[in-house]
User: Which sequence fits this backbone?
């Protein structure tokens, strides 16, 4: 599962992770949960619906929306299509589901759990931090609030999966002070509400490894302080200062993530492509996936040699 | 300064947009701008208040109306406040409850405790509630709302309606009929309703259904109060002195969300002043050769530095600038596509990217200093 502050690129990271992880002997599903407009569809450059579609060999993607998930859920719970129709067509039921704490979330998360039987790996693009926490917490709430019946049972199953050894959550962050603050906080909160959930990774998106020398910094600062420069020069220097700022923020963020929460940080270099986003969103997803694949390869080699 | 078109004549400005685009900072900067031209302004934010506190240079503030210190030249006032779902919900129950006993029963009900925390959109509903109080109190000339980072973009507009719909008498009586007559779930029903109710019981558990029914039973009397408030809020949103401002950053996902917001607001006939595009890279749009532009100037500063420093930096600035030029062009094409989408009377503001993060009033004052109103030509 992936989450993170809004705007950090968690959908893109989920999409890239899916492309990097799927292979001849691993069938992977990348799933959004109940998204009103599918951001995953943009990341893969093709429309997505409830039913998984293959976006690359052995990589599937879908958006688990509530309505069809409810049909699936009732099919499995009630096992009588006539009754399923009866329930779904009743206007009162909709209202009931809206107000019942966790009903919606349990139905959607149950579908995620069900997909674990069909796929070797399921990557879930969760909503942004706060909503993700409520979503994960709600199984526990429902489990306690409804003391009997299928919801109780399903919520228990979801909790088992969340706590299980094969589940992990990654946080997507940016090298910015406020984003790192929220990441540290989210990590702490997850530890409080779901102490058994494994949170081993932070993906640090759009960062820059420090390459500028001290002397370059000095020269940049001196030039920036000069009063005899024209607009063109100022613009060049501004471009330099932005980059220096990103390098510094990257180093700060890496340092803080290591010292404050001690997780492994997977950096994604900012994509310095000429022309910005040229090539479209899918191209960006593919580039990020390439970076992940290289890292996975390097790590498996390292593990093999030691 | 180009914010007059957004601020003048408004009593309520609602900032919407996807997460991470600088919505909170934008809301605070609009508030500061209005305070500087003499208005008494309230900036209302969502939990956690830290983001707004951060940009206002405060360490923390709570759900009390808090005045922000401005320099003495400023003739207006800037206030900030954070939204606290639970206490607003509790206060609302207090206001619409006919008597003390009803109030106590609701506040103690287990389902209410969960509903007030996690009912789909309860936070958004409470945002509208608190907002209404502030705007109609007459204490402020302008209220700027920083909306919650909604999962489903306009839950914020829908949720009051949903709550009212849910409390609709007909729907409630459907649930409550068996309670009113015998307080036994399902027994007296015949036909479809009985069947559905029984099934719900088998899915959610009888015990929960009983508690839910009790909750609804108490809530039944509050319907009129909720409905009246909902109508008043909708009226407030559609009012001439209210406007929505869509905030985005110049990247694909965020601009896609902005398009979506424009459409949705349009469909709902909600007033929208236009789009604020944050973090634009203000490149001049031409390729620059750093060796030519900076070569001479550099010579004055390198005496005590390692050899090649000048060449390294010049090469670096050239590469950075090329990258930013590309980025800047891509940003412009995204912004142009949005601009075409704007209707009559809607504006677009470009806010250039600042150096450093906004952590105090001074930096906040810089946000709109170089903002440009972009026209569609």
Assistant:
């Amino acid at each position: 599962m992936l989450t993170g502050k809004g705007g950090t690129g968690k959908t893109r990271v989920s999409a890239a992770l899916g492309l990097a992880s799927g292979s001849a002997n691993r069938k992977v599903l990348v799933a959004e949960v109940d998204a009103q407009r599918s951001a995953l569809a943009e990341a893969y450059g093709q429309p997505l619906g409830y039913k998984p579609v293959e976006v690359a060999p052995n990589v599937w993607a879908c958006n688990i929306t509530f309505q069809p998930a409810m049909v699936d859920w009732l099919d499995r719970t009630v096992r009588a299509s006539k009754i399923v129709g009866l329930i779904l067509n009743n206007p009162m039921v909709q209202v009931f589901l809206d107000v019942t704490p966790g009903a919606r979330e349990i139905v959607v998360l149950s579908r995620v759990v069900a997909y674990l039987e069909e796929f070797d790996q399921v990557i879930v693009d969760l909503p942004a931090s706060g909503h993700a926490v409520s979503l994960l917490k709600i199984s526990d709430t429902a489990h306690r609030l409804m003391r009997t019946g299928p919801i109780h049972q399903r919520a228990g199953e979801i909790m088992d999966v969340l706590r299980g050894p094969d589940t992990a959550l990654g946080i997507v962050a940016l090298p910015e002070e406020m984003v790192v603050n929220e990441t540290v906080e989210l990590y702490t909160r997850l530890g409080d509400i779901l102490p058994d959930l494994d949170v081993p990774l932070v993906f640090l998106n759009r960062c820059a490894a420090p390459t500028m020398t001290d002397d370059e910094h000095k020269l940049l600062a001196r030039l920036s302080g000069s009063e005899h420069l024209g607009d063109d020069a100022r613009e060049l220097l501004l471009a330099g200062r932005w980059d220096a700022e990103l390098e510094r923020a990257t180093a700060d963020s890496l340092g803080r993530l290591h010292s404050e929460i001690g997780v492994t940080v997977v950096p994604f270099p900012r994509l310095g492509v000429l022309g910005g986003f040229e090539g479209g969103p899918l191209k960006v997803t593919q580039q990020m996936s390439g970076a992940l694949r290289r890292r996975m390869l390097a790590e498996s080699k390292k593990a093999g040699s030691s | 300064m180009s914010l007059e078109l957004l601020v003048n004549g408004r009593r309520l400005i609602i900032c919407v947009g996807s997460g991470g685009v600088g919505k909170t900072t934008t809301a605070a900067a609009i508030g500061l701008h209005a305070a500087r031209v003499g208005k008494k302004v309230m900036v209302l934010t969502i939990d956690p208040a830290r983001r707004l506190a951060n940009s206002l240079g405060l360490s923390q503030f709570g759900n009390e109306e808090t005045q922000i210190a401005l320099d003495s030249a400023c003739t207006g006032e800037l206030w900030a406040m954070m939204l606290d779902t639970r206490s607003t919900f509790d206060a609302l129950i207090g206001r619409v409850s006919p008597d003390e006993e009803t109030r106590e029963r609701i506040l103690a009900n287990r389902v209410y405790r969960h509903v007030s925390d996690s009912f789909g959109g309860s936070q958004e509903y409470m945002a509208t509630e608190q907002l209404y109080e502030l705007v109609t109190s007459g204490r402020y000339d302008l209220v700027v709302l920083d909306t919650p980072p909604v999962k489903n973009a306009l839950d914020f507009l829908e949720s009051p309606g949903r709550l009212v719909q849910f409390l609709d008498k007909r729907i409630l009586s459907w649930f409550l009929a068996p309670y009113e007559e015998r307080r036994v779930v399902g027994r007296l029903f015949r036909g479809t309703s009985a069947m559905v109710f029984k099934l719900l019981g088998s899915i959610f558990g009888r015990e929960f259904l009983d508690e839910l029914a009790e909750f609804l039973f108490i809530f039944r009397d509050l319907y009129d109060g909720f409905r009246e408030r909902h109508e008043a809020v909708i009226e407030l949103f559609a009012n001439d002195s209210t406007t929505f401002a869509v905030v985005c950053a110049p990247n694909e996902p965020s601009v896609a969300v902005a398009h979506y917001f424009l459409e949705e607001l349009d469909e709902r006939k909600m007033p929208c002043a236009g789009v604020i595009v944050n973090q634009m890279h203000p490149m001049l749009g031409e390729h620059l050769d750093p060796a030519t532009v900076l070569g001479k100037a550099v010579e004055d500063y390198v005496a005590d530095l390692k050899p090649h420093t000048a060449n390294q930096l010049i090469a670096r600035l050239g590469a950075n600038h090329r990258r930013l030029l590309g980025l800047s062009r891509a940003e412009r094409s995204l912004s142009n596509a949005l601009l075409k989408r704007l209707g009559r009377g809607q504006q677009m503001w470009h806010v250039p990217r600042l150096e450093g993060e906004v952590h105090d009033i001074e930096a906040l004052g810089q946000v709109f200093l170089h903002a440009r109103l972009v026209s569609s030509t």
In short: The two ends of chain A are 29 Å apart (CA to CA).
